[in-house]
Specification:
By secondary structure, the protein is mostly helical. Helix 9 crosses helix 22.
Length: about 575
């Protein structure tokens, strides 16, 4: 019996960890306790393991160095910066302004508020990177408005929860930082690879709303005329955007000779800054050259877009590292909050407290994972997992399908941080051995882990929405109608179609890897490379030609004698006869 336990320590240890967490113990302490307990057992049973257990007491001396590796990890330093930026932006009222303005813009069309929530969810994801902030903000602001104007409760709750989870996959996502660290890859490459899948997923959400607005038009009516307080003016907005495009093109042409490839980005910046200044001047001086709607859209949209460029643009252009981009984003968030008059000591204090809690949560899980992995690798657990996964039928595709099914099921019980720290280090070696690009693999897992926020009954996005949705009937202050509450069942059923869309997105990412692999740039074909040596002036086409001598290696004319005072040219060896076998005489 003891020999059996010693030789199967890895699977016993793995399933014991699952039991620990199902019993409700905190994940960080479950990892550390499991690792230390099985280290003790492994040391005692090592002589009976037939060489499968490689544990001894001196191995514990490696723990301080592993802990120091966590504390000195510069990649993880980006997490507190992006968390702080997201919380400050939430307090600044940016989400409220965006939802009100975009809701007015899309209001005249059926399902307009749902489109606005998805669009704002994508913008918040690209600025905050925090799911809780996005879901809570949109639940507080847009859910009462959607209920006020007759939206189906399941559609409204599903759209809000799903749009908030876009912060999982659209950069600067916190989970992408963790995945890049665990896979040993660049955060910038992970961000580049995840950008297109994030935008495609956003488009799929909008496509679902379009389909539902056709099939069930009464479930998402357009805003009534009296609710469109900004009036009309879409034509004025398009004219303003066209003028900005012309200015951007003119600036691009002007800057091209001096700035080269960066001229297009600089030109776009000039066009955006000009139209933003014009909109502010138009409102402040009451010139009314633009419509109120155009003014509001430009003034509200450009600051978060500028912040996105400040963070992601500098990372993608190679100007800043993700940590530096997060620091700049934090400063930008503070400036935006100050401009809106929302920056105070209490806001900064709350943001710092929330950032400290989340960062401590991540660090403790990572330290526990280091203790667990020390023992797990000592019992050859990584080899057990690798053999188990590599031997799956179907090769690379079979491996990806099996892994995604496993992660999808584990996401019912585990948070995305827990999945990233426990499961990903076990899966990465097998994926690498099969030749799977680890950035593609990481983005695929990121899309899959996004479902952990939407799974009934343990999805955190559903809990966040439940905490802010009305539980009892209330009187609407605008219409004076009695509004029925949103039930937990309606929230859960509203999430199901979006979980299905996320599963479809996983399949699309597997079927079309180029959505992610574009991060590598254009592939160079070695057969098309041509090397040309530059002409050497004064040497007449070859060494010696410029001195009145034939180029080196050029045969001399027959019957000519060497020039006086020069040594005769050495005799050239005869070319070997390759038609006969070699002779060694």
């Amino acid at each position: 019996m003891m020999e059996f336990i010693a030789q199967n320590m890895a699977p016993i240890m793995f399933f014991s960890l699952i039991v620990f967490m199902l019993l409700g113990y905190p994940v960080a302490f479950s990892l550390a306790a499991n690792g230390l307990l099985f280290f003790l057992i492994g040391v005692e049973l090592a002589p009976l393991s037939n060489g499968t257990v490689n544990l001894s007491w001196p191995l514990l001396y490696a723990l301080p160095e592993r802990f120091w590796g966590v504390m000195s990890n510069e990649t993880l330093l980006a997490i507190p910066f992006f968390t702080f930026m997201g919380i400050v932006l939430e307090r600044s009222g940016m989400a409220e302004d965006l939802l009100d303005t975009i809701g007015q813009l899309f209001g005249p069309i059926r399902g307009g508020l749902a489109y606005a929530v998805i669009f704002v969810g994508a913008l918040l994801a690209a600025t905050t990177g925090v799911v809780a902030a996005s879901v809570i903000a949109m639940g507080l602001i847009s859910l009462p408005i959607m209920l006020r104007y007759g939206y189906d409760r399941r559609v409204a709750s599903g759209v809000i929860a799903a749009s908030g989870t876009l912060a999982q996959i659209i950069p600067p996502s916190l989970v992408l930082i963790v995945l890049a660290d665990q896979l040993g890859r660049s955060v910038g490459d992970m961000y580049k690879g995840a950008l297109i899948p994030g935008l495609v997923l956003t488009s799929l959400y909008m496509g679902y709303i379009l389909l539902m607005s056709i099939i069930r038009p009464k479930s998402m009516p357009a805003l009534p005329l009296e609710a469109r307080t900004l009036g009309h003016g879409v034509t004025s907005l398009f004219v303003a955007l066209a003028v900005a495009a012309v200015i951007a093109y003119a600036a691009h042409v002007y800057l091209s000779p001096t700035h080269g490839a960066n001229a297009d980005i600089l030109g776009a910046c000039v066009g955006i800054v000009v139209i933003y200044i014009v909109a502010i001047a138009d409102r402040g001086l009451k010139i009314n050259m633009m419509s109120r709607l155009a003014q509001q859209v430009i003034i509200v949209l450009i600051p978060p877009l500028a912040l996105i460029f400040l963070v992601l643009g500098t990372i993608f252009l190679g100007i800043a590292t993700p940590t530096e981009g997060g620091a700049m984003g934090s400063v930008g968030a503070l400036i935006m909050a100050a401009v809106k008059g929302r920056l105070s000591f209490d806001v900064v204090k709350q943001a710092l407290a929330s950032t400290t809690r989340l960062s401590s949560f991540v660090i403790f899980i990572l330290i526990g994972a280091r203790v667990f992995s020390l023992t797990f690798y000592g019992v050859n657990g990584h080899l057990w997992v690798e053999h188990l996964l590599v031997s799956l039928p179907g090769g690379e595709v079979g491996f990806l399908i099996a892994v995604n099914v496993l992660v999808f099921l584990l996401a019912f019980f585990l948070d995305f941080f827990e999945l990233a720290f426990i499961i990903v280090p076990l899966l990465a070696p097998a994926a690498d051995k099969l030749g799977i690009d680890l950035i593609w693999f990481g983005v695929l897992l990121g899309v899959n882990m996004q479902t952990s926020f939407m799974h009934p009954p343990f999805g955190f996005a559903l809990f966040y929405l439940r905490s802010v949705a009305a539980r009892v009937p209330y009187l609407d202050r605008i219409t004076g109608k009695n509004i029925e509450p949103v039930t937990t069942g309606q929230i859960y059923w509203g999430a199901v179609p979006f979980v299905c869309i996320q599963i479809i997105m996983i399949g699309l990412t597997i079927a079309f890897p180029q959505m992610v692999m574009h991060y590598k740039g254009k592939t160079v074909d070695p057969s098309t490379i041509e090397i040309k040596m530059p002409d050497m002036p004064g040497l007449g086409g070859g060494l010696g030609g410029g001195l009145g001598l034939p180029p080196l290696g050029a045969p001399s004319a027959p019957g000519t004698a060497p020039a006086p005072g020069t040594a005769p040219a050495p005799a050239q060896p005869a070319a070997p006869d390759l038609s006969k076998p070699p002779s060694f005489n």
